[in-house]
Write a sequence for this structure.
C-alpha cells in the first residue's frame, strides 16, 4: 500500500472506506472497533440508568434508550425514509468534499449537515446515522440484564442495514 500525502489524507477524511487509502483489513478493523465501542458505551448507559430500570414499566421506553424504533411501524416506508436520509447525507458529503472554499471548515459543516438531516428527516424512523449505532446498542439491550425490558425489536433492525446498502448502491447512478 502506498503512503498517502498529508494533503490527500485531509481531503479523504469524509469518504467511507476509500479504496485508495484503506485496505479491507483496516475497514473490518474499524467496523469491529465501532461495534465494540458502542456496546461498551451501551453498557455504561445501562449502569447510568441502573436505578431507573425497575421504576420504568414501559419496555418500549427501555429499548428507546438503546435503539431506535419507527414512529409508525411500516418497515418498507421506513426503508424509503432511510434511503432519502442516506442519499441526502452522502450527497452533502460529496458536495462538501469537492468544494475547495470550505477547506478547514469541513468538520463544522459536516456536523451541521448531520444535525439538519437528523432534525428534518430523522423523526420518522429515529435517526441513528451510523448503522453500528443502531446494531451495537440493540445487541447490548438483548444481552444486558435489564429488569422488564421486553424484546429488542429485531424485526426492525434490518431497516437500517438494508437502506444504507441500497442508498450506497444507487447513489452513483443518480
Amino acid at each position: 500500500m502506498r503512503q498517502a500525502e498529508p494533503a490527500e489524507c485531509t481531503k479523504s477524511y469524509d469518504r467511507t472506506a476509500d479504496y485508495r487509502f484503506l485496505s479491507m483489513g483496516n475497514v473490518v478493523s474499524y467496523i469491529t472497533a465501532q461495534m465494540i465501542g458502542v456496546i461498551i458505551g451501551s453498557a455504561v448507559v445501562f449502569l447510568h440508568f441502573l436505578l431507573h430500570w425497575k421504576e420504568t414499566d414501559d419496555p418500549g421506553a427501555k429499548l428507546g434508550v438503546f435503539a431506535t424504533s419507527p414512529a409508525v411501524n411500516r418497515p418498507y416506508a421506513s426503508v424509503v425514509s432511510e434511503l432519502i436520509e442516506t442519499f441526502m447525507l452522502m450527497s452533502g458529503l460529496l458536495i462538501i468534499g469537492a468544494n475547495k472554499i470550505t477547506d478547514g471548515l469541513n468538520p463544522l459543516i459536516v456536523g451541521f449537515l448531520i444535525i439538519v438531516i437528523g432534525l428534518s428527516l430523522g423523526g420518522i424512523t429515529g435517526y441513528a446515522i451510523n448503522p453500528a449505532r443502531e446494531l451495537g446498542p440493540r445487541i447490548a439491550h438483548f444481552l444486558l440484564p435489564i429488569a422488564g425490558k421486553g424484546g429488542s425489536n429485531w424485526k426492525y433492525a434490518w431497516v437500517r442495514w438494508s437502506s444504507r446498502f441500497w442508498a450506497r448502491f444507487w447513489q452513483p447512478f443518480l
